[in-house]
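Class prep. Protein, please:
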Amino acid sequence: MKVLLDKEGTIESLKYSIEEVCQNKDVSSILVLSCDENKYTDIQLNPFLNNLKIPIFGAIFPQIIYARKNLSKGNIIVGLNESVNPLIIENLSSKDEQIESEIEDNFSLDDSIDTMFVFVDGFSSTIATLIDELFNYFGLEHNYIGGGAGSLTFIQKPCIYTNKGLLQDAAVIVATNIKSGIGVKHGWKEISGPFQITKSNKNIIEELDYKPAFEVYKEVIQTNSNNRFNENNFFDIAKGYPFGISKIGSEKVVRDPIRTQNGSLVCVGELHEGDYVDILKGEKSSLINATKDAYIIAKDSYKGENMQITFFIDCISRVLFLEDDFKDELNTIPDDFLTIGALTLGEIANSGQDYLEFYNKTAVVCVL
């Protein structure tokens, strides 16, 4: 495995870095993690991506992580020593039943698979359906690691790297033989609930306990804090108060509300009518300690022989919540190995034992 950091983040530096990694005779596929601030477009990149001779996959995120530092510009290029056959699912939001057939057509259950990388446009409206179909087909036999791509402008645009080009509203799924260990923790605590989702539409909560969702959410937060919502500050407040969906025997699945829409709450990731959710609040110390715990779980569950890197997928809203203290979260991960990763719009993981989920505001640590 060869890892290269490109701090410049220009089109030219990205191409040069990919070509440099490809010159290594042991490299058979490329993983790319990029920053949204690079301002890449599909028009700029597609001719280059289309002409690559080896498989490429990855995504563009609000920030990336290299050597326990978060970067808002640049790229990480990882050369893998095995060839892969990425499954590219386009127009994800308009698909439902077709997702299952595309997975079945691309992967065989007889294949030797240890770790699967899954990157998806964070603003696609059927992410949970994709995750459910992966779980239904593969079960808990493998480890999964990945996240939601996109921009903190909340404007959907091309953000998924493939040999077909830079894609919007898409997912790329890659099966590898890489051994891994994964830990998942978030550190958020309940302050109110549970509330039943009595009306929803994919990633939009319309009603909680038969009342407009924002009305309920607003009342809880304004009762439990000095925060007061106005027309312009929803996300500034909401980043500290996510929803938590209870799951038997595992961490709560956190959902991030990012904006209001006619009295409803638009979230990153789907929620289902009938689900019960709590409203959560975080303390800086509990979030930082959760990452430390996730690393310990990941390292303890690693079954390989030659650990090379720590792959850290963390939510960008944790950065916004922790602010300057986010460096303390990064520093809970030991520097025994190089740490790379991404700050995402939703995290994808399981540990080979727990449910496969699309999380928000959660720290996912993977050792490879």
The chain has two domains: 2-185+287-367, 188-283.
